[in-house]
Hints:
By secondary structure, the chain is α/β, with parallel strands linked by helices. It has 14 helices and 13 strands. It folds into three domains: about 5-190, no CATH class; about 225-285, Orthogonal Bundle (DNA polymerase, domain 1); about 300-420, no CATH class. Helix 1 (about 5-10) packs antiparallel against helix 5 (about 135-150). The longest helix is centred in the N-terminal third of the chain and has 22 residues, at about 35-55. The radius of gyration is 28 Å and the shape is flat. The protein starts with a helix and ends with a strand.
Amino acid sequence: MFFATDIANFLACRHLMTLDRAKAEGEIEKPVFHDPGAELLQELGNRHEQAFLRHLAETKDVVEVPTADISWADAVGRTVAALRRGADAVYQATFQEGPWGGRSDFLIRVDKPSAFGPFSYEVVETKLARSAKARAILQLCFYSELLSKLQGVPPDWMYVVLGGGTELERFAAQQYSAYFRKVKRDFEEVSRVSENTYPQPVELCDVCSWFPICDKRRRDDDHLSVVANITSVQRKELVAREINTVARLGGLLLPVVPKIDRIGSEALRRVRDQACIQVKGRNETRLLCELLEPVEEGKGLAALPPPSPGDIFLDFEAVPYAFDTGLEYLIGFATLSDQGGAELAYKSLWSLEPNAEKEAFEQFIAFVMERWRLYPDLHIYHYAPYEQTALKRLTGRHASCVDAVDQLLRAKVFGDLYRVVRQGLRAS
């Protein structure tokens, strides 16, 4: 059987089907690795689903279709029986139509005539996310199509219950059905033939079990995607000119005549120089770095202000799905010793629940404002923009320290060291 996940994965990465086919034919084994983060998300997703089930059961007759110790065909039969009976809602509704199968989180009854009687059903999926993603919409379309085959009429609406609540966010099924049919048709065509695909890096790589195999192949092939910060458009244009490995790009003589389409001369120089230092570091089996020149005012190392004895080095750690709103569970910061020594003093403010988070946030801001009074030239350094975003979010979440955070932001006290590094040096 093919499932909604197969279609969503196909849209994200065509090479996945090649790998799955090879696995089915016994040619390769799928890597297995322990991912506590993924397991946590799965557990939180299950809790969210169960919370919505309890919410429905308070006011509706909910039929639950078993998922264990029962065949797929029996689960489909129980689903159809519940729909014919006119249950208010069905949990874990199970479908099969030819090679297509699926298990929807919920079906809810609506007042629209169907083959079952003066009522029909619409699909509801629970998702931990804060907003509905494209994969969720495809999944809803998949189940809605299977449901329409059973009840004889297409659902008008489909719904997502996002993390942290029980409210239904609805989508008009007809607005997405044509696109879904096209994606499904493309999937069917490709599933019938073997494609000569390549593991181009995509967003799905971050969570894909096949990543170690694909990454090894790209490195063995010296694929251009290994070059740091190169774009897919740049790779495509370079390959069209037979510059198809990191080594070839690193040895490219500039200027290139005729000019390469869709790659500016400065952008081409950047990716060439990046490839060059990566090849050199690989050949010398050591880490290399070099300053980017010429140094531009306000960029890279030139963006760093003079050091101050009051400077603060800040880092946040968070769990985005804890307590529905997320939790900044650690505010860690380092400062030079107040005794005038060169040693850094580190302080950690831990929070294991929202009230403690508010207290830690207020304590940190109070510390910063007092230190700023003593050292008017101080800066707060962080790595990547997350910390500034987190401070704004905490201000809104707890309705606290609004004026203080606003003063810090307007005074441009914060310094993003990741931007400094990205603009300031090139590394192998």
